[in-house]
Each structure stands twice: as C-alpha cells, then as structure tokens.
Amino acid sequence: MNLIDLTALEAHLAPYAARASASRGRRYVEPAPEARTAFQRDRDRIIHSAAFRRLEYKTQVFVNHEGDLFRTRLTHSLEVAQIGRSIARNLRVNEDLVEAISLAHDLGHTPFGHAGQDALNECMRAYGGFEHNLQSLAVVDELEECYAGFNGLNLTFETREGILKHCSRENAQRLGEVGERFLRAEQPTLEAQIANFADEIAYNNHDIDDGVRSGLLAVEQLDELELWRIHHRQVLAHWPNLSGRRLVHETIRRIINALIVDLIAATTLQLQDHALASPDAVRRAPALVGHSANMAAQARQLKQFLFKNLYRHYQVMRMTNKAQRVITGLFDAFKHDHRLLPPQYQSQQPELQPRLIAHYIAGMTDRYALKEYRRLFVVDEG
C-alpha cells in the first residue's frame, strides 16, 4: 500500500515534468516506497550515504582547513538544491527530482576540488581517464555499501541520468541505458537541466563571497562586472552607509535572485514556444533551460572574472600545486605497490588496479588525503 496519493501529488506538474509514477525504475527491482515518492526515496538515500557526509570535508575553492566559514562541497550541494527547487517550483516540474540530482551531483568529486580532479585525470590518462560526473554515478551505482540486496544506492533512472552531465561516446556505450541520450544527441529531463544551471548560479556567487571573505578579491575589483555593479548600486541606493559583510551579502543575494528570475522567465518562453506534451518531447527538443541573452553575457563575464582573479590567484595556485602533488604522489605510490592500499582496493587483476586506486583517492576528504600522504612519505622522528 502506498500511503501517499501520487495522482494528487503530481496534479500540479506540467505535462513536460518528470513524474515519479512514470519513472523508468531502478536497476534492481524493489517494492514501491509507502510514504514517499520514488524521487524522494532517492533524495533520502543520497543524504544518508557516506559519500554525502564526506562532502563536508571536500574543497570547493579553499581547502577545508583554511577556514571554517568557506564553502565545502556539502554546503555547495545544499545551495544548489535550494536554488534548483525554487526554479522547479516556478516551472511546475518535479522539485524532488531536482533536489536529488543536485544533492548527488558532486558525490564523486576528488579532494582538493578541480585541482584534484585534474591531477587524478592525468594519472588515469592511460586507463580511461577520470571524470567526476562518471565517478558520482559509480558512487551511487556501485561504490556505496549500505543495502543487503545490491551495491550502490539503486537510484531511479531519472536521478542517475541527471547526475551524468557529460559523457564521451565510448563511456556512453559502456553505461547502457543511462548513457543512451549521448549517443542519440538527446537532452535529459528538464529537472536535470535545471540542476545544471542551479549548480552554476550557486558556485559563481558563493565563490565571490568566499573570495572577498578570504581577502583574495577586493570589492573594488568586482565593480568591473556589470552584474555586480547593477546590484551593488541598488543596495547602496537603499542603504548608503552599508559596508562590510552586510553590503557583500545584500549584493550577492540580489544577484542570485536576478539570475533565478531571469532563468525562469527565459525558460518559460522556451517552453511556450515548443509546446511540449511530455518528458519524452523534452528529450527530443533542444536545450530548453537557460538565461536571456543579456543575462547569459553577464554570467559569462562573471565566470571569466573569477577564473582570472580567483581561481588563478597566486595563493590559490600555490594550494592547487600542492594538491596536485599530493594526488599524484598517492597514485604513484599505490600503483607501484598496491599492497599499500586497504584490502578492499587491492586486485589480483592488474588491469583493474588503476581504477580501484582512483576510487580510493576520489573518496578521500582533503584532510584524509593529506594524512595518507604524510603516512607514506613523511618520516616521523617523534
């Protein structure tokens, strides 16, 4: 017996929204949940997973031990989910699916953010490479060890598809049904498209906040950005004497709101133009979620600014270089002698060993990776 009425729960959804009642199902058949939808079950399983808890100690831009108030992969994922749900509600699509995808999208991220991913990808170049979207899918499909009847979390097809944002044709063929849209040049659900944009809105704006908080970005620098300049001046027009943290926060929250409102308006126009009658029609259509041309240009300017002034700041680059040395050192040590690995990551089949090493390293938090590095390379004289 299902304690919730799915028909009533889904009555408000638009024809093009994904419905839990029409899900393509799970890899392993399970009884339907009794007091929640299939997508709500996905969300709950993600939140209770070990990989989700580890996000608390994984870098966004600043390494976890550099400060208690900087964003981590966990706080970032929560912000993405909040933004995604707001957009989904206004577009009458499935909030629960957007939330599940948003919370899971970084489960496979390495320690030390993109620096860690780039280093691990280089280490794995001869063995198929490393990509955190594929790793996130591996986490929910195989690597989590929670349930008696299967590996992974056994999520619905729709959540798994949304997690897989990018994929080569070679990997798409290997992944089966969940990779088919890359072979057919089709789009994912609107919910997956929304989660993707919510991710971008979240990290662009909280990276401004963290950059200013760290002292690596000055408020005066930000004035060259049209998006910042518009909303910064609006705040000062209302509160001429406002300064410091309150001024930065007031400006950023207005930028986030403007991006969300613009995305909803521009996407609504796209949906009206295409008159979509089903989720399958979404798949056959071009990408439908996006900003207006003017807002898209402002968002691109913001991304370029952050790349130049924050991500390539010499202090961030110093930590990036250090992180890459840690990841490369760990991979090389484990590849040279797999007996240094925990038993569950050792294989008697040499062709499988590099991927197991990548799984082990990708699952580390920042501080655990540093601890492992010290264990392997630092002689303790005390």
From TrEMBL:
GO terms for molecular function: dGTPase activity. CDD domains: HDc (cd00077). It holds the Pfam family HD. SMART domains: HDc. GO terms for biological process: dGTP catabolic process. Coiled coil: none annotated. Keywords: Hydrolase. HAMAP family: dGTPase_type2 (MF_01212). Belongs to the dGTPase family. Type 2 subfamily. This is Deoxyguanosinetriphosphate triphosphohydrolase-like protein. It comes from Mycoavidus cysteinexigens.
